[in-house]
From TrEMBL:
Pathway: Purine metabolism; 7-cyano-7-deazaguanine biosynthesis
SUPFAM superfamilies tied to this protein: Tetrahydrobiopterin biosynthesis enzymes-like
Cofactor(s) the protein requires to work: Zn(2+)
Species, as recorded: Ruminobacter amylophilus
Protein name, as recorded: 6-carboxy-5,6,7,8-tetrahydropterin synthase
Gene3D superfamilies reported for this sequence: 6-pyruvoyl tetrahydropterin synthase/QueD
Residue positions binding Zn(2+): H14, H28, H30
NCBIfam families, A to Z: queuosine_QueD (TIGR03367)
GO MF, any single term: metal ion binding
Length: 114
């Protein structure tokens, strides 16, 4: 099994729709640190699972310097962002970690049964 990890830093804003009062309901931004994990039993014709520059392009083009609410059509929590990124990089992506601050990280990991 081949595995790769790509770290991407994205500057973007979002706001959350919550059923309780929170400062996160107002538009605010983060310098998101995103770790993307991919795996494959085989390599492509270039000897890669997926080109690192392609991974970066998919994530940065979609999210960098954007209002994430306009991109992801669900409440853009770190958890939902991680899931969305994983879906964009199928079939190889199996895990995404989204850090919105040094103390706050959410992960999505695909169930092996999926």
């Amino acid at each position: 099994m081949y595995k790769v990890k790509k770290r991407i830093v994205v500057s973007a804003a979002h706001f959350l729709t919550l059923d309780y009062e929170s400062k996160c309901s107002s538009v605010h931004g983060h310098n998101w640190v995103i770790d993307v994990y991919l795996k494959s039993r085989t390599l492509d014709q270039n000897g890669m699972v997926m080109d690192f520059s392609h991974i970066k392009k998919v994530v940065k083009d979609a999210l960098d310097h954007k209002l994430i609410n306009d991109v992801i059509r669900v409440n853009p929590t770190a958890e939902n962002i991680a899931y969305w990124i994983c879906q964009q990089l199928q079939p190889f992506c199996y895990r995404v970690d989204v850090e919105e601050s040094p103390d706050n990280t959410a992960s999505y990991e695909k169930d092996e049964q999926q």
